[in-house]
């Protein structure tokens, strides 16, 4: 009965180690996705520390790959030292992912204030005739999120760019995809996206943070199961004589 329990624990542990390798890839992908998205929306963030959860989750994913390798070798070779190392490193990664969850919630709450403060600055510096990085960001966001202005397209009337052009029009990136003849004129508001960008940017960035949080929580749960199985194998290895004989190939006297 003891040997069956140990064998089952070992089988589950080996399977979990394989999952860890897959999890490592997914975590690194999620972290990289946050970095890429940040690059698209970086003008809406004055606080670069928003990227900390992404950095931590990529580091955790890399470490998780190493953990899977150590765990597989330790389980197959019946190494007490290897399994103990496996549990300790797994515990460290678990703590790291708890930190990711906490930081994710902290920065998720800060997103709205960050975007509200920065999007107004970016819109005020918009220069459609000679687009700089900030202008390209605004155009990109309006096209991708199908929005116009901060709260709606009328916000553009308060910008220096609108007053200088004097043509009563908003950027072409405000034009609906279905409006083929749109030139951004306020005389044809039905051709323009009606929703403002601020709420959509906040929603987008908060969704990304939630992806980070849920990924960290899911794999933290898997790591708890891995630590439990490793501890079971370690404990029974030290207390079950039949298991010791099974490893050494000995027999009862």
Automatic annotation (TrEMBL):
Keyword Membrane in annotation: yes
A Gene Ontology cellular-component term: plasma membrane
Gene3D superfamilies: Tetraspanin
CDD domains: TM4SF8_like_LEL
Membrane disposition: Multi-pass membrane protein
InterPro entries: Tetraspanin/Peripherin, Tetraspanin_animals, Tetraspanin_CS, Tetraspanin_EC2_sf
Domain of life: Eukaryota
Chain segments annotated as coiled-coil in the UniProt record: none
Entry's transmembrane regions: 12-36, 48-71, 83-107, 212-235
Keyword Transmembrane part of the UniProt annotation: yes
Keywords from the UniProt entry: Glycoprotein, Membrane, Transmembrane, Transmembrane helix
Subcellular location: Membrane
Record's subunit section: Interacts with claudin-11/CLDN11 and integrins.
Function: Regulates the proliferation and migration of oligodendrocytes, a process essential for normal myelination and repair.
Family: Belongs to the tetraspanin (TM4SF) family.
Name listed for the protein in its UniProt record: Tetraspanin
